[in-house]
Amino acid sequence: MTLGVMDQHMGMEWGVIQEGWRKGPWTAEEDRLLIEYVKLNGEGRWNNVARLAGLKRNGKSCRLRWVNYLRPDLKRGQITPHEESIILELHARWGNRWSTIARSLPGRTDNEIKNYWRTHFKKKVKSSSENPEKSRARLLRRQQFQQQQQQLHQLHLQDQIGLKKILSLLDESDNKVPTFTQLRQEIMYPSAPDEQGLLYSMINGYATVPEASNEDILWDGLWNLDDNITERANYQHNLATTFY
DNA sequence: AATGATACCAACCGCTTTGTA
DNA sequence: TTACAAAGCGGTTGGTATCAT
């Protein structure tokens, strides 16, 4: 969309200055100025951008443009099926807490995830409520899938060293079940440095995807820890009865 | 080819939270 | 403690692209 076209739209005047600030789509030149500003000054203090970079944009607009579009660590391209499954699961857990969900998807923004959800799932959720039979069937398939996943996890968690680590976390927290955050913390910053690889494999089992990056594997594994860590701890108890 | 429906996404708005003086 | 500014967040809007009829 060009600014020329935008400017012609009725009602809201895009790309024009309102109360001293430009609004509407960003031009390549504005992007360049903003990138240059961040290079020199870092992120933050967005209200200084107008003065220091010569942009006629308010701080809010600059921050948004940077966070959602210009940041170099943004992942471009379509949401992958893996990311989609994460979005679905995290949304089921946290609802519309897009920024929280986005933290589990490196390189994706809350805005991107929000848009993706709205276009792909909101309608589906709505339509499923209009068709209870299909909805039930989907739920059943989902439950079966989750059961399979759980069984896989039980197998993976038979890894003796992995169990030892979880047990130690239990011990350290007075037999309270370690939280998701605790486990993640332990993986990101292991108390014993040589345990990082171990924890990777513990959480992921050995079913790593060859083309997946370490980071993908890590996040996949983190996700698979699931929201109910208590159940994971119960695996320890279940192992004997289930597989021995 | 024309038209309408839908998907996609950038950007805005208003409210809330956080930081700081 | 308080007031203000900055940053963060979620909801919404509206334009373009694409697909279906």
UniProtKB/TrEMBL annotation:
<keyword id="KW-0677">Repeat</keyword>
<feature type="domain" description="Myb-like">
    <location>
        <begin position="71"/>
        <end position="121"/>
    </location>
</feature>
<dbReference type="GO" id="GO:0003700">
    <property type="term" value="F:DNA-binding transcription factor activity"/>
</dbReference>
<keyword id="KW-0238">DNA-binding</keyword>
<feature type="domain" description="Myb-like">
    <location>
        <begin position="18"/>
        <end position="70"/>
    </location>
</feature>
<dbReference type="InterPro" id="IPR044676">
    <property type="entry name" value="EOBI/EOBII-like_plant"/>
</dbReference>
<dbReference type="InterPro" id="IPR009057">
    <property type="entry name" value="Homeodomain-like_sf"/>
</dbReference>
<feature type="domain" description="HTH myb-type">
    <location>
        <begin position="22"/>
        <end position="74"/>
    </location>
</feature>
<dbReference type="GO" id="GO:0043565">
    <property type="term" value="F:sequence-specific DNA binding"/>
</dbReference>
<keyword id="KW-0805">Transcription regulation</keyword>
<dbReference type="Pfam" id="PF00249">
    <property type="entry name" value="Myb_DNA-binding"/>
</dbReference>
<dbReference type="InterPro" id="IPR001005">
    <property type="entry name" value="SANT/Myb"/>
</dbReference>
<dbReference type="GO" id="GO:0005634">
    <property type="term" value="C:nucleus"/>
</dbReference>
<feature type="domain" description="HTH myb-type">
    <location>
        <begin position="75"/>
        <end position="125"/>
    </location>
</feature>
<protein>
    <submittedName>
        <fullName>Uncharacterized protein</fullName>
    </submittedName>
</protein>
<keyword id="KW-0539">Nucleus</keyword>
<keyword id="KW-0804">Transcription</keyword>
<dbReference type="InterPro" id="IPR017930">
    <property type="entry name" value="Myb_dom"/>
</dbReference>
